[in-house]
Design goal:
The chain is mostly helical. The protein is built from five helices and no strands. α1 packs parallel to α5. The longest helix is centred in the last third of the chain and has 23 residues.
């Protein structure tokens, strides 16, 4: 799982570099600001796998997604967002 998210993270960094190379210089400052957020605060909506997928993977009644399926859907959603950013940047 961590390998899949590692690849996704690199795609996100690559897109950031493409869209705003100067933003990369601010990564350490942004990271420090995130570290100062109160506990349980999300730095991005993309961090919340259930919100991104629009469904729960932990429903007690079995109606939710399994963890592997939820992770795959989460990664696909973020990749689709990155693809839309890429397409918009070419227009």
């Amino acid at each position: 799982m961590s390998e899949r998210y590692g690849k996704l993270y690199q795609k996100m960094v690559d897109m950031l570099e493409k869209l705003d190379p100067e933003e990369l210089d601010l990564r350490s400052d942004r990271r420090a600001a995130i570290d100062e957020l109160p506990a349980e605060t999300l730095a991005s909506m993309w961090v919340d796998i259930e919100a991104t997928n629009g469904v729960s993977f932990s429903n007690n009644d079995g109606s939710g997604l399994g963890i592997d399926e939820a992770v795959a859907a989460h990664i696909r959603a973020i990749e689709a967002w990155l693809d839309s950013l890429d397409a918009a940047s070419r227009n």
